[in-house]
Amino acid sequence: MTLSFEVGRPRVPGVEARAGKFPGPSLIPALNAIQARLGWLPREELEELSRTMRRPLYEIQGLISFYPHFRTTPPAKVQVSVCHDLSCWLRSADDRIAEIRARYGDDTEIELNEVSCLGRCDSAPAVAVNEQPAPAAGVDALVAAAREAELDEAGVTGRAEPWPNDPYPAGSGLASRYVSLRALLAGEVSAESVVATLEASGLRGMGGAGFPTGRKWGLVAATDPGGVKYAICNADESEPGTFKDRQILTDQPHLVIEGLLLGMAVTGAEQGWIFIRHEYGPEERVLRAELAALREAGVIGADACGSGRRLEVDIFVSPGGYILGEETALLECMEGHRGEPRNKPPFPGNYGLHGRPTLINSVETFADVPVILQRGAEWWAEQGEGDSVGWKFFAVSGHVEHPGVYCVPMGTTVRALIDLAGGVLGGAEVGAVQPGGASSNFIGPDRLDLALDFGTLAEAGTMLGSGALVVLAEGTDLLAASTNVLRFFRNESCGKCVPCRVGSTKAHELLRETLDAGPGTLDEARKGRILQLEETMRKTSICGLGQVALGPVVSVLGLDKGGAAARPQPRPDGSTEQPDR
Question: pTM value?
């Protein structure tokens, strides 16, 4: 669907700087389509797009230069991308990269690139050959198939039994699903009762921010009643160690879409999108098949479920970049701009896509809504451990026997989750853990009995974050591990603000100098500069990327003293949790 721009709508205070940007429609879907057809973006195609859309060529070039997925040179016959981020690094990615480079580095038919997280940390070290994902051990077979143009379309590996948050029995079809949506559209339950149930359940945003879901839905519903609104499912998980949403999209597309549709119906939005990273091609196909079935059955469309209400959902494929997981950068991308975060306020619930109130939640958050509405707030609250509420999906990777996605009661301990994943490789002891993805501070082996919950982890100086638990075995070089994390943030910085762009680069240079000199620790002078850079970035960066980029490094320095060196996990709105993704 074409993204349009509302002409003549007055801009709210705080967004005046965006007034000079080009209005829509967004050119990104068109650029995606050209690249999907040709494999790259030839200049003549861009000139034709410029003429057709009456947009200056320099604007198009500005978009292409920002997004890593776009390319302006023809690709090699075989493109091999190898992840070098933390979960893969812990599984000897550097050695595998060296082996692949030695085998194929001089082959003119093959283009080899080291890349950021591919979202396949459960099969680390992960590769992609012509965008088909696989473990590194399978690279030779994929390369051979690609040479002969016989590379099959990648599929997905699903789960036979429903996850604990799925209210629908195994094997149930479309006709017996979408129960809560049908009831809402039929007037059997009210939008107000949906919001009240979500508030009573204690469901919070599972993308990282932890903002109360019912409260967010209520705020967007109350904003500009009767006006145009939008809803977006943020499926752009791109942080090292994070792949739970990928599995949810595979196994529960019906829950994700039902949750999104419920959010649309409650808030008054008629148009929704699932914003998905381009590396999730197999999962995108699962979603498109579900949406096609819903349109055929009349569940979505101009007369959703025979209610007379229009509810439409489309998919927006990201042109690449971790920063797009930040909700306002995501909006900038969808509007057709470079994906740079906006200053807040205003927040998307008031001024979102095209200046209209916009509901944004994560994949897991939307997927939890249907079961709460069917079984009740009290049932959901009872699923947690202790004072925690509900179920929580975790992606577990690193030095564990069985990397994968696990759904456990919120409040489960770090130790119990590691045990569920088979324990540490080879029976080794735990050296450190990142409990909430690359943005979270490392904790030591003395903290394994911490409950995995928002408040408990925040009090311990780390965070629940994206629900990605990365385990490091005893003996792992923690300074090297945290430097690997920092490299990711340095590479993925959008560059908009100086503290993040320059600070991450300077800090990485300091740490690399130390590591290149051999085993050891930072001298006091370098340590002091790292701490100064961390404080500056945390206090002055525009968005959460820059604010948390050096937190993992500082937490490792704290572990040398026997503690986690608790530091705030800041947000632009002044609270202390990660921005929602």
Answer: 0.92
